[in-house]
C-alpha cells in the first residue's frame, strides 16, 4: 500500500473545504479538511501533515497566526496560503515569513500543483 502525503486544508469557506479536498484526492494526496485553525490544532493530524493549505483570513486564529503557532511548537509544516483578498502587499510578506506560496482565489489546478510540488521539496 502506498502511503500518500497528508495535506491539511484549513478554510472557513465551506465550498473550498468541499471542492479542494476532492481535487487533491484526484491528484493523489490524502486530505483532511478543517474549518478553523483551532480545530486543526486540537486534532491528531498535526504530526502527520506534510503540507498545509491555509486560508489567510479566518474568524478566530488567522492563517498567519496558525503558521506562527506551529513555528513556536517546532512543527515545521510547509504552508501554501490561499486568499480571496488580492492585496499585493500580503504575498511578499508571507513568503518572507516562510510560506511556500500564496495563491489568490480562484487559482488554477496547475498553480496549486506547482505550489504543492514546491512544498514537498521543502519538507
Describe this structure in words.
With 123 residues, this protein is α/β, with parallel strands linked by helices. The chain has helices at residues 14-26, 37-41, 63-72, 90-96, 109-122, and strands spanning 6-10, 30-34, 49-55, 79-83, 101-104. It has a five-stranded parallel sheet with strand order 2-1-3-4-5, sandwiched between helices. α1 links the parallel β1 (6-10) and β2 (30-34). The longest helix is centred in the C-terminal third of the chain and has 14 residues, at 109-122.
Topology readout:
Elements: E1 6-10, H1 14-26, E2 30-34, H2 37-41, E3 49-55, H3 63-72, E4 79-83, H4 90-96, E5 101-104, H5 109-122
Parallel strand pairs: 1-2, 1-3, 3-4, 4-5
Q: Report the end-to-end length measured between terminal Cα atoms.
A: 22 Å
Summed up, the helix count is 5
Topology pattern, helix = H, strand = E: EHEHEHEHEH
Beta-strand residue fraction: 15-25%
The quaternary organization reads as single chain
Question: Which labels suit this protein?
Answer:
five-stranded parallel sheet; 5 strands; alpha/beta; 123 residues
Summarize this entry quickly.
The chain is an alpha/beta fold. It has helices at 14-26, 37-41, 63-72, 90-96, 109-122, and strands at 6-10, 30-34, 49-55, 79-83, 101-104. The longest helix has 14 residues, at 109-122.
